[in-house]
Amino acid sequence: MLIADKRDYRKGYEKHYELYKKLKRNNSDVNSRRLLLVYCVECGLKYMLLDRWHEDDPKKIFDSADEKKKDVLKSHNLEKMIKALGQEGNFKFPQIKTVHKDQAVSETYHQLYRYCIRTQEKEQDNEEKMEQSLHNIACWIKEGM
Questions:
Q1: How far apart are the first and last CA of the chain?
Q2: Residue 54 CB neighbours (<10 A)
């Protein structure tokens, strides 16, 4: 695992979010823009976690005995991060069914879009809800930075 510090997470959030918005305006590739949005939100949430914990250097957390913080910071689980920030229930994370009968959840959204996994036809509404929810989180993050 590579170490990213608070500054890196903030920059990742800002860069990915700006490109996401540009792709959305241009109605560009949906998988790529959603992937950027997922990573933007993940970076922003990790930035906010470090800020809440008054820590710039995550190495101190990884070297500590605080397994709960380590688990959250190493995770891709957006719901877990939202919960650690005291926002549980304020944002929705729909499950999205793939054509392979798998369930994509907040922890695996990045895989869904990184690999361009096809979803079941009836899942288009859930994908749009997921994108809207992640966009809402990205806006909430921006307000908190």
A1: 25
A2: 6
